[in-house]
């Protein structure tokens, strides 16, 4: 094991002493030539030296599997033949696993060392990873569950069986047959049952009733064995005896850990929210509550398998009566004036699920509409199921009294209609528990309260996590997991964090000189008081569109002369020359709603004298913003900068500084650079390019809109702080970036146009992919890049890194009162992957809530980074983000790709509103040629 004094898959063979085998421990300079694996061509399949270990690992160089004979493995500074400067097309790709079972798939690279050692200081941390142990000899049985109705539902109703009914069917069946032990099985609520004992593979008949006066339904339940989940394979993976993660076993164990919270809490997405005596809740007093809960996952780590659990908050509708809900939700609501509120009531209720109270039933009903008539006027045809009498017309008021002895009190309001003509008075309906309330619909006070509850300080969050992992409602409660050979240590993992020293930065002085900024290591912020930007872009031609000219409220109307004076003064203080605007075009907010007039307005101002940018001042946020950006950036070809009059009218210096920094970056200036103009590791290299890629998907409830892919790339070296961007649509929720290689080549050509040479080294940062999609990134996207480059006889060395923010790992100081971890905190031991190259880096200062580190996972590395080199490189890059004077939480290529993907989403929405039939055409996303090389998106 790597952490136990032996290295495996890192330049040696299994059992080789763990001393570094990279030529660096003796103090010699690192070799930069070639790429990882280029000097180690893979051996043919019939090479007799390839033994069992060919299936277990790859060399440190990534050229192929680890060889059994140590003489055949060369150290990274002792190549068996001269290292070529550029890879020949005849050489195969490195890091290929030549195993017939994997069909020559590329595999993620292994960790190059035991972790980094670079540190200005260290700190003792707690991580919300709870060590999980299991009996390796355990075998779980995975069964497929097929449930079918024995007879169709009457009235042509839906044949789909709800999750709640599926769970009832399972519990009914397993409680009535001794061969099906309920305590030894777990169910995911859909198609999968995991059992600790063998179950009969048979078809069973189960009859259930939704409740009083409800028809009973019979179901055929068929159990079929799908797989045997052997824990020993997971142990082999953790011991590095298997290279492919046994996802089926992890998925089975995940179902086991979710069984208890699924029974005891509200299950929503991947989260669980206790509602009975909740530990964390808040009543917003408007029919909405917030519940604190948790989401968790299993992670293979260096210390073994871990349960990672984090705190989460969601807003729900209260499970109260429909009438009480309406009184809370609608200001001034009165039943006597129901007609006045009818539209608002429909908005609040339609689509919600309710239970009824006039009879015993667990059935849930969806509100389809309000009845057209008031309750006292509703009649229906009663049909006796027993055939005792002929059908007859009955008034709903009389029916409820005769059938249920229920007197309807509120007769002069509509009923709720559930479909197929079923009407139920509102007073007998209660909202079903666990119906999410969209946070974007919350009022200002509730929204702020939810935000505060969602962003607890580290001490509170750590306490909440600890309480939930120990709770009887949590994954470890109920005594279930022990039946499946699992135990969880409920103590957070202790790790030693390293804090990397921040870089020294360069900015301009008041008299044109270059100044060096030494940062405070606690917050790592800097300011530009008494300083200027590194390279200011002179502004000679610009214009203003004042959309606030018709505003009657002075607070939201631009004070134009005062604004221009202060903006010019700010640019002058930052060392940037700025002329007076060529003119101010008066307009109104209404013009933002008209595509034609807005397009004409932008073209008019742009034609004044080929303006460098247009400053657009608005009185408030407006949906026309997306149309403005789409027209300006794809049709007119002009940079725009939007701002709110209410913000700039305050005259705050920081607001004008933010405007100036963004405008200077958009026009090609440089706000700040690293000292010596060089990034770590590449300090002696000539041309290096950084690429960021991301995909923006539509909201979960949107089942039609396209996804938007964005790719950005640096166009200057060695500062590497200016980017070009490309954006376009692709299939709905498709994560793989189509034509990724072609897009990257287009950015390389952009680099060549500006620098007269192509970059020799490329580092790609990919955002938004999970561990399950790593194979797609490696074997689809990376292969596409290499294939396109090879066709152009272009062979740069490439490193591919995934940056993840959507994970659950949190870092806490061992002393809970110490607050958030410091910028530059790195963790790359114990809670990281057992053998692949990953680490957690918190690069920003967390002033609100609990800082979340970014998880960086290296999938491909032809530059042969050490842990220290890559961590320092990424951390230093986080200081080059152009919009602020502090390090950001995400490496800039990914941050910018996210901004560009969101900008593409705005283009799509603007075009969809104008012409839905053609919004998916790529031509509507093509940037104007004047903006293709500019940072218009910041």
From TrEMBL:
Pfam entry (one): ArgoL1
- Which residues belong to the signal peptide in this entry? none
GO cellular component terms, alphabetically, are: ribonucleoprotein complex
Repressor found in the keyword field: yes
Q: What InterPro entries is this protein classified in? A: ArgoL1, Argonaute_N, PAZ_dom, PAZ_dom_sf, Piwi, Piwi_ago-like, RNaseH-like_sf, RNaseH_sf
Q: Which GO terms describe its biological process?
A: defense response to virus; regulatory ncRNA-mediated gene silencing
Please state every residue range assigned to the domain named PAZ.
Answer: 321-433
User: Does the record carry RNA-binding as a key word?
Assistant: no
Q: Which GO terms describe its molecular function?
A: RNA binding
* SMART domains registered for this protein in UniProt: DUF1785, Piwi
Report the residue ranges that make up the Piwi domain in this protein. 613-909
For bias kind Gly residues, which ranges apply? 1-14
Tell me which UniProt keywords the record has, alphabetically.
Repressor, Ribonucleoprotein, RNA-mediated gene silencing
Q: In what ranges is there compositional bias, type Basic and acidic residues? A: 52-61, 100-110
Q: Where is this region: Disordered?
A: 1-110
The cross-references to PANTHER family, in alphabetical order and at most eight, read: EUKARYOTIC TRANSLATION INITIATION FACTOR 2C
What family is reported? Answer: Belongs to the argonaute family. Ago subfamily.
Kindly provide the name given to this protein in its UniProt entry.
Protein argonaute 2-like
């Amino acid at each position: 094991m790597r952490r136990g004094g032996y290295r495996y898959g890192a330049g040696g063979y299994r059992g080789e002493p763990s001393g570094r085998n990279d030529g660096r421990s003796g103090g010699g300079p690192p070799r930069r030539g070639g790429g990882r694996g280029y000097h180690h061509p893979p051996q043919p399949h019939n090479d007799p030296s390839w033994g069992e270990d060919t299936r277990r690992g790859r060399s440190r160089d990534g050229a192929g599997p680890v060889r059994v004979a140590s003489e055949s493995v060369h150290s990274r500074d002792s190549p068996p033949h001269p290292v070529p400067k550029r890879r020949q097309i005849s050489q195969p790709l490195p890091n290929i696993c030549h195993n017939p079972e994997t069909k020559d798939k590329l595999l993620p690279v292994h960790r190059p060392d035991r972790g980094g050692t670079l540190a200005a200081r260290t700190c003792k941390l707690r991580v919300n990873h709870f060590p999980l142990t299991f009996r390796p000899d355990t075998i779980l049985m995975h069964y497929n569950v097929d449930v079918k109705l024995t007879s169709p539902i009457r009235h042509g109703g839906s044949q789909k069986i709800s999750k709640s009914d599926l769970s009832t069917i399972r519990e009914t069946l397993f409680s009535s047959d001794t061969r099906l032990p309920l305590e030894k099985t777990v169910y995911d609520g859909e198609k999968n049952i995991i059992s600790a004992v063998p179950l009969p593979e048979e078809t069973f008949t189960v009859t259930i009733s939704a409740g009083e006066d409800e028809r009973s339904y019979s179901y055929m339940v068929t159990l079929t064995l799908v797989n045997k989940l052997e824990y020993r394979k997971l142990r082999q993976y953790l011991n590095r005896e298997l290279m492919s993660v046994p996802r089926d076993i992890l998925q089975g164990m995940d179902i086991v850990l979710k069984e208890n919270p699924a029974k005891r809490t509200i299950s929503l997405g991947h989260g669980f929210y206790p509602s009975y005596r909740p530990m964390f809740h808040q009543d917003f007093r408007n029919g909405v509550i917030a519940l604190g809960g948790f989401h968790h996952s299993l992670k293979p780590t260096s210390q073994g398998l871990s349960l990672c659990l984090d705190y989460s908050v969601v807003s729900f509708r209260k499970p109260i009566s429909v009438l009480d809900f309406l009184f809370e939700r609608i200001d001034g609501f009165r039943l006597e004036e129901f007609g006045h509120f009818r539209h608002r009531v429909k908005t609040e209720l339609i689509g919600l699920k309710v239970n009824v109270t006039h009879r015993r039933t667990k059935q849930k009903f969806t509100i389809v509409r309000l009845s057209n008539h008031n309750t006292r006027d509703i009649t229906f045809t009663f049909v006796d199921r027993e055939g005792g009498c002929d059908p007859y017309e009955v008034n709903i008021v009389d029916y409820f009294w005769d059938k249920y002895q229920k007197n309807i009190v509120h007769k002069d309001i509509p009923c709720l209609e559930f479909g197929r003509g079923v009407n139920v008075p509102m007073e007998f309906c209660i909202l079903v528990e666990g119906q999410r309330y969209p946070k974007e619909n919350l009022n200002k006070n509730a929204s702020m309260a939810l935000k505060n509850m969602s962003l607890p300080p580290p001490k509170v969050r750590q306490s909440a996590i600890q309480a939930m992992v120990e709770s009887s409602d949590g994954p470890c409660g109920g005594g279930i997991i022990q039946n499946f050979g699992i135990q969880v240590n409920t103590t957070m993992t202790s790790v030693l964090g390293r804090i990397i020293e921040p870089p020294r930065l360069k900015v301009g002085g008041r008299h044109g000189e270059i100044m060096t900024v030494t940062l405070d290591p606690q917050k790592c912020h800097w300011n530009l008081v008494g300083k200027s930007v590194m390279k200011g872009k002179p502004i000679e031609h610009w214009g203003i569109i004042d959309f606030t000219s018709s505003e009657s409220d002075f607070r939201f109307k631009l004070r134009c002369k005062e604004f221009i004076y202060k903006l010019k003064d700010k640019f002058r203080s930052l060392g940037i020359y700025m002329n007076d605007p060529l003119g101010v075009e008066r307009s109104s907010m209404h013009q933002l709603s008209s595509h034609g007039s807005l397009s004409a307005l932008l073209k008019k101002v742009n034609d004044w004298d080929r303006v460098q940018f247009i400053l657009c001042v608005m009185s408030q946020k407006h949906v026309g913003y997306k149309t403005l950006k789409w027209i300006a950036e794809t049709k007119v070809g002009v940079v725009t900068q939007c701002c709110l009059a209410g913000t700039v009218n305050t005259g705050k210096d920081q607001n004008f500084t933010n405007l100036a920094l963004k405008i200077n970056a958009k026009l090609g200036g440089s706000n700040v650079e690293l000292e010596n103009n060089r990034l770590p590791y590449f300090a002696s290299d000539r041309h290096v390019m950084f690429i960021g890629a991301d995909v923006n998907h539509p909201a979960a409830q949107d089942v039609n809109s396209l996804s938007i892919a964005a790719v950005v790339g640096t166009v200057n070296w060695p500062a590497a702080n200016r980017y070009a961007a490309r954006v376009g649509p692709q299939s709905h929720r498709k994560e793989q970036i189509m034509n990724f290689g072609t897009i990257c080549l287009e950015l390389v050509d952009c680099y060549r146009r500006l620098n007269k040479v192509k970059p020799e080294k490329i580092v790609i940062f990919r955002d938004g992919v999970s561990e399950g999609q790593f194979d797609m990134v490696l074997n689809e996207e990376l292969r596409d890049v290499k294939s396109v480059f090879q066709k152009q006889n272009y062979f740069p060395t490439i490193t591919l890194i995934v940056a993840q923010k959507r994970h659950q790992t949190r870092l806490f100081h061992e002393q809970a009162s110490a607050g958030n971890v410091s910028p530059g905190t790195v963790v790359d031991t114990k809670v990281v992957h057992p053998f692949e190259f990953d680490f957690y880096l918190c690069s920003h200062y967390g002033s609100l809530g609990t800082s979340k580190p970014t998880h960086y996972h290296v999938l491909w590395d032809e530059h042969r980074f050490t842990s220290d080199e890559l961590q320092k490189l990424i951390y230093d890059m986080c200081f080059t983000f152009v919009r602020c004077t502090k390090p950001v939480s995400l490496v800039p290529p990914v941050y910018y790709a996210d901004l560009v993907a969101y900008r593409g989403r705005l283009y799509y929405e603007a075009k969809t509103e104008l012409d839905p039939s053609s919004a998916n055409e790529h031509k509507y996303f093509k940037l104007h040629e004047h903006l293709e090389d500019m940072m218009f998106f910041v």
